[in-house]
Design brief:
Two copies of one chain form a homodimer. The first copy, chain A, is of the alpha/beta class. The first copy, chain A, contains 13 helices and twelve strands. In chain A, strands 2-1-3-4-5-11 form a six-stranded parallel β-sheet, covered by helices on one side. A six-stranded mixed β-sheet of chain A has the order 7-6-8-9-10-12, with helices on both faces. The first copy, chain A, starts with 7 loop residues before the first helix and ends in a 6-residue tail after the last strand. At the A-B interface, helix 4, helix 5, strand 2, helix 11 and helix 12 of A face helix 4, helix 5, strand 2, helix 11 and helix 12 of B. The structure holds a DNA duplex (16 and 16 nucleotides). Chains A, B: This is LacI family DNA-binding transcriptional regulator.
Chain lengths: 346, 346
DNA sequence: GTGAAAGCGCTAACAA
DNA sequence: TTGTTAGCGCTTTCAC
C-alpha cells in the first residue's frame, strides 16, 4: 500500500483555507472566490486527490450509484441489456453497479435485503430479474424501475417490451412468408382464449397472446399442439425442442420462438436432424440480439432498441430519485420494435 | 421513501445495551454473552436492520467490494468471464463490482483514477482491459491481479491464458485433420521469427508465435500471406476477412482464429460466398465460448476453463489483500486448456 | 466569500 | 462481558 490517500484537510492546509472551502471549491458550489478555487484545484490535481465516496455519501445520503439487477450476464440478451443500461447510467453522470440473481427469487430477495442496499449504497435500482416483487420494492421504499414487469396496474414504474404486438408481428411475418402451420416455442404452457385474455405478470403469456391473435385473425389453427413448451430460454432448450419436433414429424412450417437464443438453438437442433432452415421450416426469434446477424442462417427477429429502452428506464428512475417528496406517479411504458427479416424466414 | 433505516443505536436502545455491543454481536465477535447476542439478533431481525456499508468501511478501511474491470460486456468471451469472476468473488464472501472501459486506455486510466477507487471503495481489482498498465497499478498501490497481461517479468500478479501452447495445439489439430495450407486470423500484424521470439505484452503475438511453431515443426509454410490481419475481435471482422479470402481465392484449407467470435464470423462470411465449413475449409477458434457448441456448424476451439481461472485470480488477489505488510511476491500463472474438436474441423 | 460546529453510522482501542 | 472514547472524511447548516 502507498501512503494514505490525500484528504480535504491536506489540500486545505496547503492552500491555507479550511476543508469546507476546499469541499465547496471542488464541487463547484457558488460562494468561492475564483482565485481560491483555482488554487484548490491546482493542489488537488497535484496531490492526485479523489473524493472519498464512502464519507461523502455517508453524510450526503447520496452515493451516485445505480444498481442494475438481472438474472444473468451470459445470455446474449442480458449481456446487451446490461451494456445499454450501464452506458445510459454513466451518460447521466452516475455509476452503474451490476448484480445478478441467477433467476432465483431467494437470491433476488437476498439482494434486496443485502447490506449494500441499506443506508445509501444505491440511489436506485433498475431490475429485470425473477422474483423482484412489487411488494418487496414498496417495502424497501427505494426508487426502482422494473423492466418488463407487465403488471396491469403497476405500483412501481415499469418499462416493457412490446410483447403482444411484437409476437403478433412475428407470426404475421411467418404467415406472409407462406407459413400455414405455425408452432410457438415458449416456456409458457398452452393457454385457452379465456386465459389469454386475462392479464398476466410475466412476458411470455403476453407474447403468446399476441401470437395467438395473429393466428386466429388469419384463420389459422391455435390449439395445444401448436404451443411447443420448453423449460428455459437458452440454446439447449431450443435444441431439445427441435429434436423432439423432428423426431415426431411435427409437420410445422414455421416457428416463433420467445427469444433469439431459443431460436438459434432450434436452428441448431434442426441441423442435427437434417431439417434445413429456411428451406424446410422457417424460424423467427424475439429481442434482436446481435448474434442473430452473424448466425448461419442469419436470424429473423422482433428487434427491440435497448438503447431507447435504457434511456426511458434511467429517465424514469432519475425522476423518482430527484423528486424530493415522492410526488411522482408510477408510469408504464412500452417500447417499440422493428421486424428484421433475415435468412431464417426467407 | 420510507422512514429512516434503523441503525445500531436503534437496536441498542431496544435491547438496552450500547451500540458497540450490538456491533460486536452482529459481527459475531467474541466477548458477547450468548443471551445478549440472541436478543440483539432478534431485534435486528425485527427492525430489518442492515449494516450501512459506507459507514462501516469508512471506519474499517475495508469495503468487501472487489472490482472486475473488462473491456466490454457483450462479447461472449467477456460475458462468460465476468460471470465466472463474479461467482468466484461471491463464493469468497465478497461483492463484485463490474466496470467496463470500452478498450480505451483513457477510459481505463480514468477508471483507475475515479473517486470510486480512492479511499476504500474497492479492496482490490481484477482487470482484463486495454490500457491497465503496471505503472498505473503500482502507483495506485492497490491490490490488483491482471488477466492475460503476459509480461515476461511482471511486477503485478497475473493469470494468463495458455496462449502459446493453445495456439500451437489448435494449429496441430488442423494439421491432424489434413490441412496443409493454414491461415492465422489475428489482430497482430505479421511478424518475422525474430519479432515473435521476443517477449510481448499482449496475447495475440504470443498466440501467433505458438501457431507459427506448429507450422514450422510440421514443415508447413509460415510467411506474411499466412497471417490474415483483422482490426477487431468481433464477428464483423471475421466476416470481412472471409469475404476477402473468398474473393481473392486465397486457397487456404484451414484457419486458426484468435478467438471464437472471429471464427464464428469467418464461418458466417464464408457462408455468404458459398464456401462450406468444414467441407471446403476447416476453422478452429480460441477461448471456448458456449455459443460455439450451438452454432452451425459447431465450432472447434481451444477451450479455457474460466472457473478455474477465476479461482486462481481471486485467490491471488485475496492473498494480496489479506497480507498486512505487502510481504508477498507477484506470481504469473498460466491456466490449462482443452482442445474441443467439433464440426468445424471434421 | 469563508469558516466553525456538528454529526452521518460505524468500529478500533482501550477502560471498566 | 460491556461500555467509553474517539474519529474515519466528508457535507449541511448557519454564523461571520
Amino acid at each position: 500500500m502507498n501512503a494514505k490517500a490525500p484528504t480535504l484537510k491536506d489540500i486545505a492546509e496547503e492552500v491555507g483555507v479550511t476543508p469546507m472551502t476546499v469541499s465547496k471549491a471542488l464541487r463547484g458550489m457558488p460562494g468561492v472566490k475564483a482565485s481560491t478555487r483555482a488554487k484548490v484545484l491546482a493542489v488537488a490535481e497535484r496531490l492526485n486527490y479523489r473524493v472519498n465516496v464512502q464519507a461523502s455519501s455517508l453524510k450526503s445520503g447520496r452515493s451516485g450509484i445505480i444498481r442494475i439487477m438481472v438474472n444473468e450476464y451470459r445470455l446474449p440478451f442480458y449481456a446487451q441489456l446490461i451494456d445499454a443500461l450501464s452506458d445510459e447510467v454513466r451518460r447521466n453522470g452516475l455509476t452503474p453497479f451490476l448484480q445478478k440473481t441467477g433467476y432465483s427469487a431467494e437470491s433476488a430477495a437476498e439482494a434486496m435485503r443485502s447490506p449494500y442496499f441499506s443506508g445509501s449504497m444505491f440511489d436506485g435500482t433498475i431490475a429485470h430479474a425473477s422474483g423482484v416483487t412489487e411488494a418487496g420494492i414498496l417495502k424497501s421504499g427505494n426508487p426502482t424501475v422494473l423492466l418488463d414487469d407487465c403488471a396491469a396496474n403497476p405500483a412501481v414504474s415499469t418499462v416493457n417490451w412490446p410483447n403482444e404486438m411484437g409476437a403478433r408481428a412475428g407470426v404475421q411475418h411467418l404467415i406472409d412468408r407462406g407459413c400455414r402451420n405455425i408452432g410457438i416455442v415458449t416456456v409458457c404452457p398452452y393457454m385457452d382464449v379465456e386465459d389469454l385474455l386475462r392479464d398476466h405478470v410475466s412476458n411470455d403469456p403476453v407474447r403468446l397472446r399476441g401470437a395467438r391473435s395473429a393466428l386466429i385473425d388469419n384463420g389459422l389453427p391455435y390449439d395445444p399442439e401448436h404451443v411447443i413448451r420448453v423449460t428455459g430460454l437458452n440454446e439447449p432448450q431450443g435444441i431439445d425442442a427441435a429434436h423432439r419436433l423432428a423426431d415426431t414429424h411435427a409437420g410445422f412450417d414455421g416457428y416463433l420462438c420467445m427469444n433469439d437464443s431459443l431460436a438459434l438453438g432450434l436452428i441448431r437442433g434442426f441441423a442435427d436432424r437434417g431439417v434445413r432452415v429456411p428451406d424446410d421450416v422457417r424460424v423467427i426469434g424475439f429481442d434482436g440480439i446481435v448474434a442473430g446477424a452473424y448466425s448461419v442462417p442469419t436470424l429473423s427477429t422482433v428487434s427491440v432498441d435497448l438503447d431507447q429502452l435504457a434511456q426511458i428506464a434511467v429517465g424514469q428512475l432519475l425522476r423518482q430519485i430527484n423528486d424530493p417528496d415522492g410526488d411522482w406517479r408510477p408510469t408504464a411504458t412500452t417500447v417499440g420494435f422493428a421486424l428484421i427479416a433475415r435468412e431464417s424466414t426467407r
